[in-house]
């Protein structure tokens, strides 16, 4: 084995002749042959290119000229000849092998190719082109390389035929928009021309109102080659103004009052705007008000009738000079930062409307929903108007699936154009919305892999066209019929519209063969006049057509495309999107084409970002196809399989939709940065609906978490994501909502509140000027008062806050600060005496509180014993203020603060505002100052009175209390009063509330899977945990009807957020496990019940028990015996100046229920799940510690099992070791 491999490099830069190229090749090759001793393997090791298993290093095409003597054995009596037998392998992508025949016999040649990359017909075409090239260079080596023609005559003829649209009649002198409309109005005078926004115009009516407007425009100075600026919201007036402008022989100029003043000024100047046509809303804008001093302004109503600004007398009719007269000027962004005005003639618009695709009734009723400043509006108006059809004006805002359905049902809409991105959204969320249409056109950017195919499949009988066309060619230039059975992948953009021609050319304006990428040029009818006022730019983009014998022009699109073997145009990428990264030239479109073929990818967009100065990164934005979100690692692997390593993006960002500009193009500036910053830690969700909406918003935005008060749009949301969010909300919450609600209520809290239409809005909570005497208790307080009197004082309902304080403590200042807090919150200085057997609230002075912070020194090893004694203090709520504080000393600068609050005066949520107020007061008292906190807006007594007003009288059937009580009677009918739990001993006649507790973890992977499952099913993490716990209890013999208790904060008015008090309520949540369900089915049942329960959470648990009157017993809790809580209240953080404050664990020895499962989420700085901290409190009257620990361990395993297979039957879910 002596053969070595050389890499020979050919430099074709600078447009050389073939002779010059030969000189370059000779020079390199001779140098290479002089250094041929280095083995190729050593060269690869030294150069160390990016290694990949999908291509050969350093080169992929081999060239061999066989010049050794043929080796033929001489066998006496036999004729020997060579036979080529191929082994079915190809070591390289392509291998060209030539053999030289002796005596001038010519060359023998063969090509070996990789069948994984090339079809045989492609390689045969390469061979034919190589032969053609060899013949030409041999005949004339002095020609530049670009002058050699590689196409065979057949190929040239085929591509010319493919690139020529059906011929349209030559434009007659009267082929102007006013003349064409007038002819149509004569044919169908009574047919509806425009409908929508509560108005209808027949062709006769539109003819009249547009003629009136044209007369006014003419009198105000509009005329040929001048502009009429149109600033209108979506309404029939848009059609009237456009038609009126061209009837005045002027050009309409779509404008948007929301544009910056500078852009409006530029557009008006470039388009020579002589008159403005505006509606009332635009008339009030600052720009129009200012411009009215120099340009006449006509204010029109929603049909286009002039309201104000009309001249004293209308102008006479002005004939349009001819078909080439300017009809409109549509502005697009320019590379220089100045807008480019594309001037389109009457003949161009007429050619668009004359395409055969709109024949056969397809354009009988076209939905006008695109922005007027986007050229799709040209199709939406003129295609129906010039064919006797109807323009159906959609409501303002982004087109939703429901709006489309309504338009088809109410107005008989037959055709709609959608940007590719919007089509993708509706195809993903509601593909059936296209049913009833005849024609769906979509385009604007690279199509997603199968959205159009899915639309074609979901709506039989609907023709789906993939359309393509820059503004410079009057909206559409090509179209392709998409069939449902078209293989996955972006469909081609097709062939030219009628009257148009297209060419795929190389850099020298020569046609390229099929399969070879070239730049797309468009010619014929529909090519615009150019850029208004920019002759130099026009000359660079609108160039002479070398293939037109009449000397026409063609438009250079800047888009790279290629012919498919069957003669369709396939889009590749933008010619000017090429980037250079670390020395490599990269076409993002090539990456996007690979991603388009990846499973789970609906759409993608690739850019180079420099979020950190000097760190330029290739980032791919991916829109998932359906509910399953592709793993970025899998996407990276897929791209690496097809492209070199330097073309694999360093980050893949999943987004539900690509942000778009007003014209439907991808808005690069709105693409989110790939780095995920720390999630906002705002207040806890007030309702389950709010929590679910938070999860849906986070999921749609691709964020780990969002706060209840975070702004959807500030986090990167936009109109298409809002459309996806609305679709998710409809599915998860069965609530009908429109996209505009997201704009009106952009926070999860606001959106959740807007969704809640089950009850009339509660009156706001305000301070009561006159309190009754006696002052009643809240309903929750009444139950605790009764238990305190019935069972006697006990520590059962103590709420302890135990904190270790390290550092130099000012104990007197802390005691005074505590007194300040008690003074601030009336609930902490209220006792509950009775008068005639009826309890009442009595607010006392703060100095009655038992606050003694004289340090009591103890040994550290006796701390647990001392804490147990302190938290076991029993309050007599009729005489004792419900707060007590003690300070234990462990050393000179080490103390433990024990603060007890009876549950009648505070709940777990109260500890956060209490700690916050204590920190503020200590800060002032330690400096010798009184605290400067603002007065609380309300006190607990105000809440007590407000609660009674809110609920009303249960005997009043229209009251909230009566309605909610009716719900609960139905919801809990037949619910088991006592669950069969795996007890270790019989229930005692009277529960002692003795208990114990322990912590148990749920790992990060399970937490993450549970959170993802919650998002996917449109429910909360709490609902997932509740469903899993119900399954666990059922599998332990509790039956198929599982009632659990849970606590809700009860702080339904924001005035309560900063208040210490007993607001928490208890709900009974029922899980139905009948019928052998899967876990996802259980989740759906739990979600439905819980949402209904939360919508009726105002009824106090105590009133529910009284009303349902279950069999009372002292050996179990009524209605439920197992409690489950997911802690989501704000962290209790006490900041004391100069001290380090940490929580001190304490064992209360109490369990109010048989079992209480408590979970607390932990998340990292970016808001990603890192595990659940579980805690199980259990009654030691009923359970041994081993049993309780076993239950917790089984629940942990069950959570992992259910998260891994949520579609499995719950009766078979694994939870045992």
Radius of gyration: 39 Å
The backbone outline, from C-alpha atoms, is globular
Mean pLDDT: 89
- Reported CATH architecture of the largest domain: 2-Layer Sandwich
Sequence of strands across the biggest β-sheet: 7-6-8-9-10
Strand content: 15-25%
Class by SSE composition: alpha/beta
Beta strand count = 45
Q: CATH class of the largest domain, please? A: Alpha Beta
Proportion in helices = 25-40%
Total domain modules: 6
Examine the coordinates and then state which fold CATH places here, giving the name of the CATH topology of the largest domain: Chloramphenicol Acetyltransferase
Query: What is the number of helices?
Result: 33
- Give a quick account of the main beta sheet: strands, pairing sense, barrel closure: 5 strands, mixed
**How far apart, in Å, are the first and last alpha carbons?**
61 Å
Any idea what the CATH superfamily of the largest domain is called? Nonribosomal peptide synthetase, condensation domain
Low-confidence stretches: none
Question: Which keywords apply here?
Answer:
single chain, about 1200 residues, alpha/beta, Chloramphenicol Acetyltransferase, Rossmann fold, GMP Synthetase, Chain A, domain 3, five-stranded mixed beta sheet, 33 helices, 45 strands, about 30% helix, globular
Describe the structure.
Helix 29 crosses helix 30. A five-stranded mixed β-sheet has the order 7-6-8-9-10. A five-stranded mixed β-sheet has the order 15-16-17-18-19, with helices on both faces. The chain is built from 33 helices and 45 strands. By secondary structure, it is of the alpha/beta class.
